[in-house]
Amino acid sequence: MSFVHKMVSTLSVLVLPLLLSQFADGASVISIDLGTEWMKVGIVSPGVPMEIVLNKESKRKTPAVVAFRDGVRTFGEDAVTVGVRFPKNSYKYLLDLLGKTYDHPLVQDYKAKFPYYEIVASDRGTPVFIHDENTRFTPEELVAQLLAKAKEFAEISHGEKGQQITECVITVPGYFNQAERKAMKDAAALAGLNVLQLINDYTAIAINYGIFRRKEINETAWYALFFDMGAASTAAALVEYKNVKVKDRGVVETVPQMQVLGVGYDRTLGGIEMTLRLREHLIKGWEAGGGGDVRASPRAMEKLLREAERLKIVLSANSEFYAQIESLLDDKDFKLLVTRKELEDLCADLYPRVAAVITRAVAAAGGAGAGARLVLAGGGARSPPVQAALTSAMGQEPAKSINADEAAAMGAVYRAASLATGYKVAPLNVKDAVVLPVQVTFTRHVDAADKLVSERN
Ligand SMILES: *[C@@H]1O[C@H](CO)[C@@H](O)[C@H](O)[C@H]1NC(C)=O
Question: Which of 213, 214, 215, 220 has most ligand 1 atoms within 8 Å of its beta carbon, as the pocket-test mutant?
């Protein structure tokens, strides 16, 4: 149950594919697209076009994982490696824990999925990881460390000597409520970052899409439906693009505009769910083969999770594949043939939920958006049955032209450039819509007068 609160803003997102600085002394600003599994960073610097920041392995995205082992803190791939042998020491899938109480269903779900973490309730009733006798981490503190790392990547790759980057735009899932948004801002503050704006991820994606199609935007409205299946959740947004006339200091100008018309989401439909079901299938195969109590070993469970993830990806392009793990438990190896059909049967109840997300977005748009083109963002949409569900829900094959992985980070960095001082950019009017779940406790009534405040939150 949800209602759509449309925030009609006159804010201009200022964009230009080749963006040049107006003042030579403008500082670099960044965007951080922090997802459940991956973190991507965009940057704009004076005189340099916007681009994705490379991490220390020269990769364009970094696993959103932080680990602690023998007094050493690691991030990204290194932290993932630590997690293979010491799952409890490696913290991941943190996004969904932000701004929750300990007894929130998503926190309890997290505990059940990753039983090797010791998570307790703090005095304030929020979840806390017990790392060791002396160390505890809140989800906000761990996310802050990821954000600080993103800032550091940007400073290393682009910073002037000793120059700090402090301004950023951070993406959040559109369904994040006020407590979750506040938790993200708290984490950013801990990381030494000033948040120019938290931007809904689908809005960032739609901005990026519009920027590169500015020439296609004219007086005739056209529509795109963005479908984003991530690791933990799925969202769809129906967006309108058209030119509008705006009055600026008495002069009427024609400006391209994007408007979010409707949003649908499913907070628990995502890639992790499929991986976990596949892992359960592997465990049953192991148990059927007379293997030992693999569930009691966090390390073995972690190996199974990684193999299930690999298997899931391979099965999106192959009809069968052998899952194989060396010395899974007690030096015994594991091998099991798994077919795509088996995976699809395991997830059969999930595919109809894909269509439901789309239907909700279309319904929220109240009949507008006929002929919308379907645009995929997010890794989950690569799976063939998901694509099939999408194609039948939309009556068309998805367009494959978007760089699904980087669209949100790029859209957000355009936004950052427009909000920061020192950048000259061309306008795109943005009208956002926010979906607020009904279970949110509001601290204040949101009405027309609050629109700009909400937008800048
Ligand atoms: C807008 O562009 C589309 C496609 O390029 C074209 O079919 C349409 O006639 C244009 N509309 C106006 C009002 O110029």
Answer: 220
